[in-house]
Amino acid sequence: MPILEVKNLKVRLADQIVLENTDFVLGKGDTLAVIGPNGSGKTTLLRAILGALSYEGEIILAPETRIGYVPQKIDLERDLPITVQEFLLLKSMQGESSAYSPRQALELVNLSADFLKKRIGELSAGEFQRALIAWAVIDRPNLLLFDEPTASVDVAGQETVYELLHRLHDKYDLTLILISHDLTVVYRYANKVLCLNRAQVCFGAPSEVLTPQELEKLYGGGHKFYHHTHEKT
Questions:
Q1: How many helices and strands in the chain, by DSSP H and E?
Q2: What is the per-residue pLDDT across 114-147, written as a single tens digit (0 to 9) for each?
Q3: Fewest CB within 10 angstroms: 21, 69, 71, 106, which?
């Protein structure tokens, strides 16, 4: 049984269609990369899956699906006098029963228990991103949504974050949806790709659907793309 099925999805914002004609199915353990130019509806798709937007069509989640979400930007002042432990405990204050303790959640993202006492503002960009992933996985979700998970992280930190997500995916058989602008990430970590430009342009295995013709259709002319294949490790 699919964990997620999207049928003929259409989203309107302020009477303008921002996403339409979108259909895809994900099974347990799939990693889907969502690509497309800015303003193409990628974040809109995630928000629709989360139930944060009204939409037409169908979004069908398998029974007992638990969703974790890491947004591209989080409305949290980094200079707030709040520790990492207090930040993670906010999930429990929302009335949700956390499957992991804050200490266990940090262990999942390769941060030591010493970070529990650190203030959010003391963390580097990469450490803060891992704290956000800990927030997302503390309830032990089986579907994880990431909106450009390395947007604020330097190049060295990006590799760390993606390897972490890959390890969590393999260890816990998670289904991942990643928004990314990096085709290398798509080929290396995803077994499926969804191309959006306010509507679905392509969907399938990256090696099969990311042809020069489809990429030109997605991003327009004047761009040169090079097809590199990567083996997942």
A1: 8, 9
A2: 999 999 889 888 888 889 999 999 989 999 999 9
A3: 21
The partner residues of 67 in beta bridges, in order of sequence, read 143
The answer to whether residues 161 and 48 belong to one domain is yes
Domain range for 214: 1-65+142-233
Cβ contacts of residue 44 below 8 Å, gap of 6+? 11, 13, 18, 19, 53
- Angle at 89 (CA atoms; ends 88, 91), nearest 5 degrees: 85
Residues 47, 156 share a domain: yes
Q: How many residues does the chain have?
A: 233
Residue with token string 């709040």? 82
- Residue 129 burial (C-beta neighbours within 10 Å; 0-12, 13-18, 19+): buried
Q: In the structure encoding, which two tokens stand for residue 167, read together?
A: 């390890």
Please give the structure tokens belonging to residue 65. Answer: 């699906």
For every residue of 148-202, DSSP letters joined together read: STTTTS-HHHHHHHHHHHHHHHHHHT-EEEEE-S-HHHHHHH-SEEEEESSBEEE
71 in a structural domain: no
Q: Are residues 118 and 134 in the same domain?
A: yes
Q: Per residue in 37-60, pLDDT tens?
A: 999 999 999 999 999 999 999 999
Global pTM reads 0.88
State the Cα–Cα distance between residues 105 and 116, nearest whole angstrom.
10
